[in-house]
Amino acid sequence: MDTNKRPDSMARITTRELADAFIAEQVKEIQAQVGDKKVLLALSGGVDSSVVAALLIKAIGKQLICVHVNHGLMRKDESENVIKHFQDGLNANLIYVDATDRFLNLLANVSDPERKRKIIGKEFIEVFADEARKLEGVSYLAQGTIYPDILESIKQAEGKKAVKSHHNVGGLPEDLQFELVEPIKLLFKDEVRVVGEALGLPHAMVYRQPFPGPGLGVRCLGAITRDRLHALREADAILREEFDLCGLNEKVWQYFIVVPDVKSVGVRDESRYEGWPAIIRAVNTKDAMSATIEEIPYEILHKITNRITHEVDGINRVLFDLTPKPVGTIEWE
Ligand code: XMP
Question: What pLDDT shows up at residue 116?
């Protein structure tokens, strides 16, 4: 039997009852698969890895070792929230690695988007592998693979050309070969969310908007600098806070700030003030293949503009991106 093929008889998980049944079955399967061995998981804080972490903690508790790599390209407070929820809340065995300097040093002066993606993906593996080598007795690697990832790989194997290299992480080095645990590999995203809620993960975590693997790295356009990255992170936090306040967070599929490497002249405290523009992108889509623009009420845009230009050092203009996909892609890089 092809274990990477979803059986036609498998019911779509749409209710709490179906999710509970799935969880009970997976807990048994995981326990049977790993026995008393240790399992390693790269926990990014995204929906898929969070659901896998919660499922494995339920099944094998401290036999699961989660590694959270902060590549310095996370959104504001994101790594802190992973630690708060999994380490403090679920008492998980969690290793936190702040690799900000490793990533930002490698990315200095690199402006080509695909090269940036490759560097981030490769370094991620290296940091994770470094941690894995320090551990003893780990036999398994858990992954948050979901069914669309499997379908996508089949498409790529058939030779279809991708616009961007979205696949964030390649395989681990030869000396680190583990058996895989992939408990949600036959689920679609909406099912992963239902399972996540049934596992008791917070609503905000389960319904978190998608966030690319290279993180803010593909939104701090061109060669990343620490000051522009900081401005982007702060402006993005304001956008998210304001969308939460007016309920747009529940309505818009993906929204974020982009900061290009361009300065314009402005005025602050009656003096000339050169700064970058913060560009708001707010899109709706079903499958990310095409996207439309959310119409944001002007008073909300004014409030966000006012806050960003007054609260964020280095930003002196706010723009709104009206471009659908196609012709634009969702991310700028
Ligand atoms: P684009 O920009 O191709 O984005 O229209 C479609 C969706 O994919 C996300 N995206 C990425 N996700 N690694 C990821 O994991 C990447 O390198 C990457 N680039 C884009 C993007 O945020 C959107 O949801």
Answer: 98
Which residue range(s) make up the domain with 190? 16-206
- Residue 169 identity: V
Residues 6+ apart with CB under 8 A from 228: 220, 259, 261, 276, 314
Q: Do 39 and 92 belong together in one domain?
A: yes
> How confident is the model at residue 145, as a pLDDT?
95
Residues of the chain with pLDDT under 50: none
Check pocket membership of 166 for ligand 1, CB cut-off 6 A. yes
Any atom of ligand 1 within 6 Å of the Cβ of 213: yes
Total number of domains constituting the chain: 2
**Mean model confidence pLDDT for the chain:** 95
Q: Tell me which of 166, 257, 325 to substitute to probe ligand 1's pocket, judged by most ligand atoms within 8 Å of the beta carbon.
A: 166
Angle formed at CA 66 by CA 131 and CA 147, multiple of 5 degrees? 110
